[in-house]
């Protein structure tokens, strides 16, 4: 790839990348600014209220050049405040004054340009026209300030979110101009895409680098990003060859699993997050955060796991980076000095998780990180026989915490999810289980794809709502997939049930359909199992799930090729339509359907009580409807019959796997 | 008063005022900043959503001095961006570059300093610890983002407000350091009182001036401000010698008034805002905005008014600065070119007032202003015999309007309420009725006190809620009263009834008590009269109102002395306790009670179903409970019996009017 090209012009400069004008800097319309600000930060259970008190924002109007270094000053007689060192396709800003802690860079925008990325975005796949703060956090119970659930959650304790809140932000975007841009910083940052003339990057630190990527084709651009951020290990065959049942019913979980298998379900995993025991709070049944098998709730678990393994069924658990203060591991960590401390006292920083407090294992201490990887994940989990787990949280690191390596909480916060992923990956690698044990995370940040084998889309509401329901899963898969995260899935049935919002049979069945055509089909009982419909709580829902799990299993040979492709090329399994149809302008706006590999087009039904569904079939292929075999030309909009059990799925007529797809239609 | 004193020191400077350190400017902690920004403004029916896209904020670290002029630059080698000209106690900023449209000034804060003012503030009388944007607008239906009413109003169309929203903001504060500060600008501005070390003034223009006032006593400070901003004409005796009944029932209003009088009420005014006819919308019964008597609804109104006058009862009407497009005056104004235009077309700018559109009379055109004063207020209202009116609105001027004198909408918006007041005052003066005809306004800005005889507290909700109910009236009276507005009152019973929120008898009675001990006791039927209790809708409520109106009338001799005092000294009738008790530190935090003149202390009951009420009696006087005659020493907190009909009121034992007060206790 070409490097950035610098052209001094009219007292300023242009930066171009393979012919694209990327930065246009002039004295009267500067592209670079630095400043100073003081953040206001309030955190309540992973929900952050953040604002800036901005003291200065200095336009760097005057540029001078010394080889590959640009020196920028407020004006001709002022000393330089910022250097920009050009290094290939990378720009490295260097501030001359350590008090400067704000940075803005404007990137040239084109009128019809479209943008994607910014991590795992739940509300909007296309980013143009909005501002996206990038700070890992709870997504919020309700992410729509006009929804009653969001309002109630806000009033109940700052619990509501907004369209940009996500567990996994990342300061990286892809442009329809066929370049990508990455800001290398873990500081609080924001992408502002509201202006017609420029995209503005804001960072609450001088970034280490701004990196560009360019290609003629989107697939190559995505490949470059996956190389840059790291590709996950190949998903093992067991993870996509049947459903993973999420049950948290103690020992009864085994019998319920057998009944579901007896109903015809293809099952390759049993996920019991309550393997550590339960704690009941007003939010619902939660887990006891002391990462040791709970003998009372799961007697003789080691033998149970071994017995399941002989049948090809893996057992999965749960862990997160916190330690409940009433658990044994907390005491162990405390005694060994593995906990993060308060800024102003030599005592552990405790985080309120809603009716219980936890210590934070200080992963910046090598000894603490090793302890968690070996002692907790290694000995307590992998050695017990766990084949995978939800590696929950990672978004709650407070900003006023004292860390062993001296890292400022404002910089550590966004870094934490990736550090958390690395510790899980390290533990797995130490047991030689990379590519075999599968942990899944909702939190993320730059580079999480290098360590985390599988994302999950976080805590959807148990409904079809625009900003919180089932549809957010698709946008999450598409956005995160462009940044190196090949594998994505969600809680089948949704998770958050509050304020009287509960699952319907229709929702469960539509989610089964979505999950069947996703890399991993994993169910969840939700935060309030007793108040919500479960897969085995309704014969029609169970029968439908069983069939969908068989379809999911039948797709395994195809999915295996996609996994191989992901390793080889970095392409995600779920892809926006334009990735393989970039000549079709209509393909770009589709954010409610995805290509599952190159050959399947999946358009899940995202509304209640529908019997048909509109689908756009992109140009450049002929598309065969999976259930009817009817063929459609590309570049057409169709409204396809979509009763329960017949989710809108199409395959390319020229697919090498068309025989497999045709068989599936008979299942 | 002394002038500002400039002392160059440590490469910066200090400004002191009568020994007070006011501004401390140093190169490493500058007090002055200029910048450039682009506002985002969305207006829906007087509710504004405003944010700034800030391009630059330049710290002016380097100061040089030339006599009374300070020149400020970003640093020593940079050209000056701002001059500050010292002129007595006034600072006049002058920018060297017309592109600079943002200004910040930091004023030294002391740890225990308290602040008041900022116009008519409804939620907080003490301003420290919060930020207050200053932009005239609808206060919002609900001004508490945690209230269900605010949420519903927001969802229904951006209709909810926040703690700082007010019809009448003003960039003026008083400090417990016994100085006051005024920013002379009509631009969008904000006072930020969150920082412990400084108060920050923000303005979206370079202000014309920053003015200081200082005195040893608060009463003198308030007197200075009333001189600066202008004192209203003395309130005529009729306005405070009995109740003004608000009825909007067409001709039936007269019979209802007679029945209320027959029930024992003292009445000196009948206010029929529906004199122009009705228009029914989803918000409730509204008025037909064509400022001409409606013969069908009020047959023979001129004779009716004359007949009432012989009995000492005035008739009052309603007007606002807009003209409904389906009215005759709109056509008249349109033909004469009196309407404000769109920016981008030679056609009238129409404002959506909720199910009907209106033109805006362009008061920056002398001919249009004269037309409205003479043709509308003069001929249609005063010549008909109206003795007063609600001069409604003034807050809705859009920012993207084209005005005759070329004034930018961003600068005209805040100026509009005072211009509107001046036109009303001009019309009254032209008929020789100044000090006799009384119009009352909710909108305001700097200088409104010079023209407007009487403020009203805007549209309270019909409840006791913290940020919207009856209690907001007291904070509104106290804050606006410090800035020259001697006379204040409210809609007895509250106004806004939406989302099922309706009046209770208890609320009506408590509001009657508050209104009786206020300069003007005026009732209102509210926005939805048919769904809400009216004064004549419940015998107990009516009887209680009648008695309170007699008490109000009986107070007239005392209130007359207060009106004289207001003319002579600028002191408002309703005053914070500290105004006359500045030696008592406990007096400063009281914001739910007021001194009514020097001699009465009124502490209205602001909660439902109370039979007693806590009251703080300030030191420096002995206080006699109005109803029981019991005397209390000053500097004490008492919980006083306060059943309905016995609102907590105390008089000074040394009052020259104590005989009058003793008589009232028998009413």
From TrEMBL, chains A, B:
Domain Glycoside hydrolase family 31 TIM barrel: from-to ranges: 286-562
CDD domains per the UniProt record, alphabetical: GH31_glucosidase_YihQ, GH31_N
SUPFAM superfamilies listed in its UniProt record: (Trans)glycosidases, Galactose mutarotase-like, Glycosyl hydrolase domain
Hydrolase in keyword set: yes
Enzyme class: hydrolase
UniProt cross-references to Pfam families, sorted A to Z: Glyco_hydro_31_2nd, Glyco_hydro_31_3rd
EC number(s) stated in the UniProt entry for this protein: 3.2.1.20
Keywords assigned: Glycosidase, Hydrolase
Family: Belongs to the glycosyl hydrolase 31 family.
Protein name per Swiss-Prot or TrEMBL: Alpha-glucosidase
Organism: Sphingomonas abietis
């Amino acid at each position: 790839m070409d490097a950035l090209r610098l052209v001094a012009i009219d007292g300023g400069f242009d930066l171009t990348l393979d012919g694209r004008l990327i930065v246009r800097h002039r004295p009267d319309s500067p592209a670079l600014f630095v400043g100073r600000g003081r953040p206001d930060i309030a955190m309540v259970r992973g929900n952050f209220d953040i604002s800036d008190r901005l003291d200065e924002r200095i336009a760097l109007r005057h540029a001078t050049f010394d080889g590959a270094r640009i020196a920028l000053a407020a004006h001709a007689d002022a000393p330089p405040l910022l250097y920009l060192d050009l290094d290939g396709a990378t720009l490295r800003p260097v501030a001359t004054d350590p008090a400067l802690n704000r940075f803005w860079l404007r990137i040239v925008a084109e009128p019809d340009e479209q943008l994607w990325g910014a991590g795992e975005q739940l509300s909007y796949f296309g980013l143009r026209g909005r501002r996206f703060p990038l700070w890992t956090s709870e997504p919020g119970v309700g992410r729509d300030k006009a929804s009653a659930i969001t309002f109630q959650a806000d009033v109940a304790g700052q619990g509501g979110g907004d369209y940009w809140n996500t567990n996994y932000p990342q300061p990286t975007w892809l442009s329809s101009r066929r370049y990508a841009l990455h800001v290398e910083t873990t500081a609080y940052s924001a992408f502002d895409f509201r202006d017609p003339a420029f995209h503005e990057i804001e960072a609450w630190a001088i970034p280490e680098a701004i990196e560009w990527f360019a290609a003629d084709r989107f697939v190559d651009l995505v490949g470059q990003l996956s190389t840059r951020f790291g590709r996950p290990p190949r998903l093992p065959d067991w993870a996509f060859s049947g459903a993973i049942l999420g049950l948290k019913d103690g020992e009864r979980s085994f019998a319920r699993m057998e009944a579901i298998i007896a109903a015809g379900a293809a099952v390759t995993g049993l996920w019991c997050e309550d393997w550590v025991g339960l704690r009941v709070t007003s939010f619902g049944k939660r887990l006891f955060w002391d990462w040791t098998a709970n003998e009372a709730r799961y007697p003789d678990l080691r033998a149970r796991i071994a017995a399941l393994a002989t049948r090809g069924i893996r057992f999965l658990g749960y862990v997160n980076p916190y330690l409940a203060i009433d658990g044994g591991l907390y005491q162990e960590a405390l005694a060994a000095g593995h906990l993060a401390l308060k800024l102003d006292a030599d005592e552990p920083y405790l985080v309120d998780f809603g009716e219980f407090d936890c210590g934070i294992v200080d992963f910046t201490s090598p000894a603490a990180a090793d302890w968690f990887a070996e002692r907790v994940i290694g000995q307590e989990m992998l050695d017990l026989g766990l084949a995978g787990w939800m590696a929950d949280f990672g978004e709650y690191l407070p900003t006023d915490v004292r860390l062993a390596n001296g890292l400022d909480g404002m910089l550590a916060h966004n870094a934490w999810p990736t550090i958390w992923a690395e510790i899980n990956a390290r533990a797995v690698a130490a047991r030689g289980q990379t590519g075999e044990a599968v942990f899944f995370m909702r939190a993320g940040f730059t580079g999480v794809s290098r360590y985390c084998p599988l994302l999950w889309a976080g805590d959807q509401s148990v409904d079809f709502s625009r900003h919180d329901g089932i549809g957010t899963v698709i946008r999450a898969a598409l956005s995160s997939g462009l940044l190196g995260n090949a594998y994505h899935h969600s809680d089948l049935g949704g998770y958050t049930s509050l304020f009287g919002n509960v699952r319907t049979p229709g929702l469960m069945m539509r989610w089964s359909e979505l999950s069947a055509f996703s890399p991993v089909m994993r169910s969840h009982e939700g935060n309030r199992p007793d108040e919500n419909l479960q897969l085995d709580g309704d014969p029609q829902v169970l029968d439908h799930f069983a069939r969908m799990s068989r379809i999911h299993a039948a797709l395994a040979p195809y999915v295996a090729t996609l996994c191989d492709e992901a390793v080889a090329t970095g392409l995600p399994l779920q892809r926006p339509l334009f990735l393989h149809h970039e000549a079709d302008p209509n393909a770009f706006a589709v954010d409610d359907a995805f290509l599952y590999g190159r050959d399947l087009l999946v358009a899940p039904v995202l509304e209640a009580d529908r019997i048909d569904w509109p689908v756009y079939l992109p140009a450049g292929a002929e598309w065969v409807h999976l259930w009817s075999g009817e063929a459609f030309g590309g570049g057409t909009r169709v409204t396809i019959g979509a009763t329960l059990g017949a989710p809108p799925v199409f395959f390319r007529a020229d697919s090498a796997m068309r025989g497999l797809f045709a068989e599936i239609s008979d299942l």
